Prior knowledge:
globular; six-stranded mixed beta sheet
Amino acid sequence: MRAEFLLAAALAAIATGQVPQPTITAVENNYSYIYSGLPNYGIAQGSIFTIFGTNLATASSGLQALPLQTTLNGVSVQIAVGGITQALLYYVTPTQIAGVLPSATPIGTGFVNVIVNGRTSVLAPIKVVQSAFGIAFGMELIIGNGGIPYAAVLDIGGNLLSSTN
């Protein structure tokens, strides 16, 4: 009976346009996923970060093209570290948001909150650092390589770095 009541309440909220409060469970570097509180945790200025939680959006968006915007599908992300700024958003889903931390965000500790159609989450902690380790990887089918996973190191211009350069 309780499950039926909760389902009815959720359907009524959707029908009347009421949005449940967004909840943040984690704010992490998009390329390392180091948990807050662990050594080396931090979101670097100008980097991509990911917010995990519930009710973070009413619908999923696709990956956005440039120029990125500060609002996407009624969702915005505020960062408060020595002032308030807004993240640029790559995508939003009900359980995950990816955004870019503005480069001008000061180094230090502060808070993040998500706003969904006027409903604001409880503040979540964030630590902004000058730089943070992250790694992206993939697997490509390369002729003669048989699809074996590999790693590559690229410089900022996308040039392959090897032991000879």
